[in-house]
Amino acid sequence: MNNKYYQPSGYNSSFDFKGNNFSDYIEHTRKKIVLARLDLHTDYPEKIIDANSPFMWLPKENSPGKKRAVLLVHGLYNSPFALRDLGHIFYQQNFLVYSVLLPGHGTVPADLLQCHRQSWQQTLDFAVNALKDSIDELYLCGMSTGALLCLDYSLRHPNINIKGIITLAPALKIKNMAAPLSPLIAKISPWLEKNNEDNYSKYRSFATQPIVEVYRLGKDVLKKMGSKKQLKTKLFMAFSNSDQIISPKTCLQFFTHFTTQDSRCFIHHSALSTHADQRIHYLNDVFPENPPGVLRHNGLPISPENVYYGLSGNCLDPKKNELLYNPEFDELAKAIVEFL
Question: Domain of 205?
Answer without folding.
Answer: 3-266+329-339
